[in-house]
Amino acid sequence: MAGKEAAHRRREVVLTFASLVSAAAAGLWAYHFQAERAAQKAEEGAHCETDLEARTPPRPYDPARDGPNPLAPRSIPDEARCPICGMYPARYPRWAAQRIDSGGRVDFYDAPRDLVIHDQWLRQEKGVAEDRRVAAAIWVRDYCSETPSWVAADAAWFVWSPKIIGPMGRPEPAACATEQAARTLAEAKGGEVLRFADLYTRFRW
């Protein structure tokens, strides 16, 4: 009789211990899930927040500083920051890009990918002025030249290859002024040649 009672108690202890372990595991899973979801929401919030404009405001047009044509490419100030990643485009002259809105304001980017992403955000965001949502001119730097000049984005040719690494340490589309230069680079890097419109299907906001 005593043996049966002892066995019964041992069984109760085992079941209680198993229940505690199960509850602890469930609690840990729930904590992990909530923490992961909170991190995801924070990341989404950082990506989609409407204060992109406040964090990195566009630079207004100044004829005395920027010249008589408000749609011409402008010099990148050393302190200018990319509105998407926060990097300093002036430090990456072969990759830099800029978007001028119909109000004459300009945003500078460290690479064409961020320009495309920001342009999509501006088009969709209802909290910014209407003329901010319209791109009047978009310029990219000629990556294929040793002395990169500005090229209108619609006229440029882009090369996408996992071997072409941009300022963010990841593959980026490299702009070239001519189709021949782009095809030469694509052949050398095992990449594909794209037009500017193609970047909008490749990189989504």
Automatic annotation (TrEMBL):
Residue ranges with Basic and acidic residues bias: 42-56
InterPro entries the record matches: N2O_reductase_NosL
Region feature Disordered, mapped onto this chain: 42-73
SUPFAM superfamilies documented for this protein: NosL/MerB-like
Transmembrane regions: 12-31
Organism: Hydrogenophilus thermoluteolus (Pseudomonas hydrogenothermophila)
Name of protein: NosL protein
Keywords for the protein's UniProt record, in alphabetical order: Membrane, Transmembrane, Transmembrane helix
